[in-house]
Specification:
Lipoprotein
Length: 120
């Protein structure tokens, strides 16, 4: 009887567990600030998709996108400075599958935005 109860408990735990990306309807992207300055705003793609107040080595919350790629148009505001990462096009690129992703962003000494794409 004890073996049956233990087996039932184990089966219940495994059946009740799910991945956080099960049943997602979109692509969830967050920002990791890999620079030494605070990002006041980070626009990823459209003007409505704004991540705010991300300190050095901190993460933003996730925002949900209908369609996204491993890179995107990015506009970073840090104090009085503005930095832009501008892709030319997405021809031949495959859209990301529904799930969770991180754009690790830093700024080079020359003021160029460096994107480090990570699957979470």
């Amino acid at each position: 009887m004890k073996q049956f109860a233990l087996l039932f408990l184990i089966a219940t735990v495994f059946i009740g567990c799910s991945d956080r990306d099960d049943n997602l309807d979109g692509v969830n992207i967050r920002i990791k600030n890999e620079s030494s300055v605070t990002f006041d705003t980070v626009q990823v793609g459209s003007e409505e998709m704004i991540h705010e107040n991300i300190g050095p080595e901190e993460y933003s919350g996730y925002l949900e996108y209908e369609t996204a790629y491993s890179y995107a148009y990015i506009n970073i505001t840090a104090g009085e400075e503005n930095y832009v990462f501008q892709p030319i096009d997405f021809v031949g690129e495959t859209p990301l599958e529904n799930g969770f992703y991180t754009y690790g962003l830093s700024i080079s000494e020359e003021g160029v935005v460096v994107l480090n794409f990570v699957v979470d």
